[in-house]
Write a structure and sequence with these properties.
about 60 residues; mainly alpha
Length: about 60
């Protein structure tokens, strides 16, 4: 993954788990940095709620 993706993820994600989620999605989806930004804007709340659900189960 290009360095710009990592910089973007380090600046905009709240946790290591959230960063890992978007890292994996970007790699599998072949996302550009702009696509990564759009996905984060759309899915950020959804992903955070998934993390909270998983944490509540543990």
């Amino acid at each position: 993954m290009p360095w710009t993706h990592y910089v973007r993820l380090m600046r905009r994600t709240r946790s290591a788990e959230e960063r890992a989620f978007y890292e994996t999605e970007a790699l599998w989806g072949g996302w550009s940095v702009r696509q990564l930004e759009r996905q984060d804007a759309r899915e950020g709340k959804i992903h955070r709620s998934r993390l909270e659900s998983v944490a509540a189960v543990k």
